[in-house]
Amino acid sequence: MTPAPETVHIGELLVRSADEAPGGLLVPGLGSCVAVFLHDAPRRLGGLAHILLPEPMPHSPLLDPGRFAPTAVAALVDRLMQRGARRELLVAKVAGGATMFARVNGVRDSMGDRNVRAAMEALAREAIPVAAMDVGGSSGRTVRASLADGRVRINTLRGRPREI
Amino acid sequence: MSGTAGRGRTPAELSADQAGALRAVAAAGAGVAGAAVAQLTGLELAVSVPRVEAIPLRQAAAGFGGRTAPVAAVSLGMHGGARGEILVLFELEGARRILGALAPPEPGSLHALDPMQRSALLEVGNILSGAYLGALGGLLHLTLLASVPRMTVDMAGAVLDPFLGRASGGAATALVVATRIHCAATRIHCPAGGPGGHQPSAHLLLIPDPPELHALLDALAPHLPPRFA
Questions:
Q1: Out of A53, A138, A157, closest to residue B165 by CB
Q2: End-to-end distance of chain A based on CA atoms, in angstroms?
Q3: Is A154 noted as a catalytic residue in this protein?
Q4: Which of B77, B150, B165 is facing A32, going by the closest CB pair?
Q5: Chain B nearest-CA residue for A7
Q6: Of A82, A110, A127, B174, which one has the greatest count of Cβ atoms within 10 A?
Q7: Is 0.90 exceeded by the ipTM?
Q8: What is the pLDDT of residues A148-161, one digit of tens each?
Q9: Is omega for the bond preceding B105 within 30 degrees of 0, making it cis?
């Protein structure tokens, strides 16, 4: 039987090795949120962040770094390095950032668009290459990342499963 | 709860008074919505409100079978005297019962809805929202308006995401009005006695902008009908 994946809830980030989480890491029902997966292939070590917002809100307490794109990416890199990952080997995959309801007139960027842009900017600041992405559109995604080989499988309600 | 005032109060719990006032508002709205749906369709339909509760929005998906469970969702903005968002969610069983009456045949799945059925659910969501906002606004002497409705069918978690992100950093509270649409006529398919027949047909989530939530609830308290006092 395939081992069950470990779920990363909204605003969380998890770092695991392939041995610790043989079923991989899972974000179920991702809408405008964005999932950032960082992987160190030789060490079979990776981390997944389930990011809610492009940046901290004014006046909002900074409770969980995983909620916001800049703090989530920085914390993910820190935790991976603490676990022995080598920064120059880290590769990113990004998924999510859908626009779940049609844009209201006059609104150019949806929450999903802003989340994706903020995640890409944070990865660029950390100088981590983005190997693949599956972002935008108007459909929710369930994202499952394998720590053994770095593959990310994406399921939607209607379309065929795909892999990045 | 609600014994403590101000910021210390847990936003996700309603006092008995607040819950009672909201139930009364929702029941009044249900009456209007039932009449509106009946007028729209020519069918004898009634709307009732079996349950009203306040929950943290980030936990809402659990009530719909989990984050990956399919839902049909109608989204409207609330503006006027108070600001916020409204989301009307239909699970498959609820949608089947409504569409069995309004736009048959019953769909086998939510992503197999034809355009007419999507339009019917959109209109039911629109009517419910307008009726509940009218009842709430009438009680509070506020003009509460709903924006043009938008619709999608997708995973519950994905549908709720954008609302979680807005304005609150993920800590928003939703006032959830469970709504049941009954069939009063026997000539339409109406499995009221069958599986799920007494389950809610739809859930309306009112998500006030966070600064407005307590103001809205506090404003309700003086309007309690005697049976809730």
A1: A53
A2: 24
A3: no
A4: B165
A5: B67
A6: B174
A7: no
A8: 999 999 999 988 89
A9: yes
Q: Does residue A57 surpass a pLDDT of 80?
A: no
d(CA A120, CA A56): 16
pLDDT tens for chain B, 229 residues: list them. Answer: 333 333 334 445 677 777 777 788 888 888 888 888 778 777 777 787 777 888 888 888 888 888 999 999 999 999 888 888 899 999 888 888 788 777 778 888 888 888 888 998 898 889 888 888 888 888 778 888 999 899 999 999 999 988 887 655 556 788 888 888 776 654 444 444 333 445 677 888 888 887 777 777 777 766 555 443 3
Buried b (16+ CB within 10 A) or exposed e, B19-56: bbbbbbbbbbbbbbbbebbbeebebbbbbbbeebbbbb
Q: B152 and A100 in contact by Cβ < 8 A?
A: yes
Structure tokens at B153: 């069918």
Whether A111 sits inside 8 A of B170 (CB atoms) is no
Residue type, A7: T
Indicate which residue of A33, A51, A52, A111 is catalytic: A33
Contacts of B85 in chain A (CB under 8 A): none
Residues B157, A52: C-beta atoms closer than 8 Å = no
Tell me the DSSP string of A95-161. EE----SPPPTT--S-HHHHHHHHHHHHHHHTT--EEEEEE-SS--EEEEE-TTT--EEEE-SSS--
- Six-digit token string for B65: 């079978």
- Nearest by CB to A32, from B162, B168, B170: name it: B162
Residues A17-37 as b/e (b if ≥16 CB within 10 A, e otherwise) read bbeebbbbbbbbbbbbbbbbb
